[in-house]
Amino acid sequence: MATPYRLLFVCLGNICRSPAAEGVMRSLVETKGLTDRISIRSAGTGGWHAGKLPDQRMRTAAQNRGHDLSSRARQITENDLRDYDLVLVMDQLNLRDVRTYDSGSQFGAKIRLFCEFCTEHQESEVPDPYYGGEQGFELVLDLLEDGCRGVLAHISSTLA
After folding, report:
1. Within 13 A of 9's CA, how many CA atoms are on the CB side?
2. Domains plus CATH for the chain?
3. In the predicted model, what is the mean pLDDT of residues 77-100?
4. Cα distance between residue 27 and residue 21, in whole Å
């Protein structure tokens, strides 16, 4: 059995966008029968929510679309950059912060903005819904569902 493709989603606190991306991607991967081929995790650039479940508002919005968000928040580490095949960040701030973990500038090609994989939306970043209303969580899920389809197509093209 080949080593699974390792995918990491990253946002600020790992309680809204990145765990939602993890849940959306997990749903897609399960539907395609690729759970043994693709490993999915998420992390935050900050560690203040470590160990906590995703934000209840995001969990509810995701659950309404059939996505389970049950991962626990954690902070990204330098080892993650070595261990994962693709690290997808939600916005420019996350991109800058994740690059600080790449002290040897050797992992730049695998650190990318999530919205590069969106085909139906024009946004360049996934906005943080934390301080907004319900519609912000719905927009995030729209972007994540779009982009995760693109991510899956990208990964599938690399799987033997």
Report:
1. 29
2. 5-158 (3.40.50.2300)
3. 97
4. 10
